[in-house]
Amino acid sequence: MFQDVCFPKNNEQEFVEIAKKLGTDSLIFVYEFTNMKDLEKIKQNFSVISDFKVDIGLLVNDKTIQKLQNTNHYIFAKTPSKNLIESKKTYILYDFELQDKPDFLHHRNSGLNQVIANEVKEKGNILAFSFSTYLNSLNKGVIIGRMKQNAKISKKYKLNNFVLSFAKHPYELRSKHELESFRKLIGL
Known about the structure:
There is one protein chain. By secondary structure, the chain is α/β, with parallel strands linked by helices. The chain has helices spanning 12-22, 36-44, 82-86, 114-123, 131-135, 140-156, 176-186; strands at 3-6, 26-32, 53-60, 74-78, 92-94, 126-130, 160-164. The longest helix has 17 residues, at 140-156.
């Protein structure tokens, strides 16, 4: 079963239509989490989609994580801080590659190192690679180099990882075969 991740903005039905054409079995719609009341409003939007399997994902940061109570939804963290990585909840961590700092002389500043990798493994977090980050990047060479370095560290420390679309627009969704090719390209 192939499940993909996307960030809808009141265009959930368009994402579903494109996903069906690409052969995707289900989607995770990720919404920025602010409080538990907003989560109830999000759940009401799903009554429209009945013929396709969809799940809810919540995008959290350092400030909103304290408001999140026990939930059975997927929890995502973009360019996570050390506090998020060390917390007890299980997250899907992505976009480590979007560091503002320049690369070093002999290796990339990819945002992931052995200390963070050990922490991610210990907490049971999942490392995700975003195809959309590469697709929309102005400096694709730097991003792909950082992804390759993170993939190498991920393999070395045996982290749970995957490559998904993380699409912000319906036409950024990719088929399973395209994402598998990208996965091989970065060395996973």
